[in-house]
Write a structure and sequence with these properties.
Elements: H1 11-21, E1 25-31, H2 35-46, E2 51-54, E3 68-69, E4 79-80, H3 81-94, E5 98-100, E6 105-111, E7 114-119, E8 123-131, E9 135-137, E10 153-154, H4 157-160, E11 168-172, H5 176-185, E12 191-195, H6 205-212, E13 217-220, E14 223-230, E15 234-241, E16 247-251, E17 254-257, E18 261-263, E19 293-295, H7 307-329
Parallel strand pairs: 1-2, 1-8, 2-5, 8-19, 10-17, 11-12, 11-17, 12-13
Antiparallel strand pairs: 3-4, 6-7, 7-8, 9-18, 14-15, 15-16
Helix pairs in contact: 2-3, 2-7
The structure holds flavin-adenine dinucleotide.
Amino acid sequence: MMDLKIGLTDRPENSEDRESVKGKSYDVIIVGGGPAGLTSAIYAARENLNTILLEKALCGGLPATTDIIENYPGFPEGIKGMELVHKFKEQAKKFGVDIAEYREVKQIGSEGNKILIETSENTYQTLAVIVSSGSIPKKLNIPGEKEFIGKGVSYCAICDGPLYKDMDIAVIGCGNSGLQEGEFLLNHVKNITFIEYLPYMTGARILQNKLQKNKKAEFLLNNELIAVNGRDFVESVTIKDRKSGEEKQIAVSGVFIYAGFLPNTGFLENNVKLDHAGYIITDEDMKTSVPGIFSAGDVRSKNIRQIDTACADGTIAAISARNYISELKS
Ligand SMILES: Cc1cc2nc3c(=O)[nH]c(=O)nc-3n(C[C@H](O)[C@H](O)[C@H](O)COP(=O)(O)OP(=O)(O)OC[C@H]3O[C@@H](n4cnc5c(N)ncnc54)[C@H](O)[C@@H]3O)c2cc1C
C-alpha cells in the first residue's frame, strides 16, 4: 500500500508544466487525473483537440491508493495501482496532453458558449469541460483507520475482498452499500461481523433477510466502531455498545468501511443537475444538464464504480465533447 498520490511525477516537472500552460485557452479541459480523466485526455488528444488536464494533486486518482489491481483486463498477474495509472498518464502525455498537477479547480461557470474554469492559480477558457473529479470514501476518523488503509482497512469489496479468503472480517455499516458489498464478501471470507451504529439496519429489507439467514454473518446493531488495532496489519477492532457503553474487541483480519462516499462537485455551478446524493446526472453520452459540461467516472450518478467503468465513461465523454465542439465550430 502506498501513500495517496506519491510518485507519479515530482514537483519540478509540474512547475514547468504550470508555467507553460498559464493563461491559455483550450478546446477541452479535463478536471481530475484519475482513470476517467486520463482516458478522456487520451481520446481528446487523439481527436486533435487542444487539451489540458487539471489535477489538484498528482495524477492517479483512487487506484494510486491501492496496492494490486487484479480485475483490470490485460494484466493476468495483476498490476500495482500506481503502475497502472502511471501508464495511463504516460499514454496521455505521449499524445500531447498538457498535464497540470497541483492545480485545483475551484469553480466552473459558463458564459454563452464559453466555459470558464477557475483554479487555485488562474482562469481558463474552454469550449468543453469533462468533470472527472471522482469521489472520496467518507472516513470515520477513528484511531487506526488511516494507518491501516491497504493493510486491513478497505473501502472497496470488489477490489480487496478476494485477499481475505477464509478470514474473519468486519463490515461497518448496514445500509445498502454495506449489505450489498457484504453479500459479495461472503463468497470469499470465513465470517463477517456486521457492525451498525443505528439500532436497526437501513439497507433493503430483501438484503437484510437474505443475509440474516447466512450462517457466516453476524450482526451487532447499535454498536459503534471506535478503533482499528494491529501491528503491521489489522488484528482486531474495538466496538462500543451504544446502550450499555460496554467496549469489546473482536479479532478480524480486515475491516470494510461503508460509511458512504462523497462526490467531488463543490466547484460546479448551480445549474449542473445532481442526484440526491450529490453525484452529477448525465445521459448515456456523458452530457450533463449544461451544454459543454460533460462528466465521467465515479463523480457521476451510476451504479458500478470501477476503473474500467471510469475509463469507459472517459472515452464516451471525450467523443461526445468532440461532437459538441465540431457542431459549435461548424
Ligand atoms: C481502496 C480502493 C481500491 C479500489 N480498487 C479497485 C480495483 O482493484 N479495481 C477497480 O476496478 N476499481 C477499484 N477501485 C475503484 C476505482 O478506484 C474507481 O472506480 C476509479 O478510480 C474511478 O476513477 P475516477 O477517475 O472517476 O475517479 P478518481 O480515481 O477518484 O480520480 C479523481 C481525480 O480527480 C481529482 N480531483 C478531485 N477534485 C478535483 C478538483 N477540484 N480539481 C482538480 N482535480 C480534482 C482527484 O485528486 C483525483 O485524482 C478502488 C477504490 C478504492 C477506494
